[in-house]
User: What shape does this take?
Amino acid sequence: MEEQRIATDSLSESVEATTGTMEQESEAIHYDVNKYERPSVTVDVVMMSLRQRDLQILLIKRRSWPYEGMWAIPGGFVNMDESLETAAKRELQEETGVQDVYLEQLYTFGDPGRDPRTRVITVVYFALLDSERLQVRAASDAADVGWFSVYELPPLAFDHAKILDYTLNRLRGKLEYTTIAFNLLPEQFTLRELQRVYEIIHHRRLDKRNFRKKILTTGILEDTGAKKMEGTHRPARLYRFNPAAEHKL
Assistant: This one.
């Protein structure tokens, strides 16, 4: 009897599972894709670099409406058959010629009135890198491309001023718990050069003694044993990033 009961229970469960699957398939077949309005999705790519002792961002001049002739963050619409990251890399290459850079997803902006064309939600990607490694040019989707100080920006299209303000605040916060600042330095650097990166991003002077004490106690740096002349000062020690100590920040 017990074996018969178990078999009956198993059969019931199998029938219920099959019925459930059939109901789901039926619902999928009859699902109305037009039941809800569908907003468009775009990606925007914030590319920042240290240039001329300033924190600068790569912008493109828009070729067409809306905001024709205005400067904007590189970006565009996501195709139905591509991922967000793929779209971000494609748009960056199409508008600036830049490719093969590591992008980090930063934030999503979706105010209903942010784009006059339609309801558009944008996913913002971010990269902080050495501009000397980039060959930028105005590609097919942009009238011009150029680097601008984040502290002296031209009038920007859409809500891109808001996006850049958010990005700068996030960047400043990430300095405290990540190694993102090392993306802006050569492989070997002095403590003075490292402090300058922090000062440019924070847009203020930092106390030399406190900064060096904090950085050196983390163990994040390795002394290379080499030195470098900095102006009329005595030779300064050259350090490099110690990836084994990254968790100490």
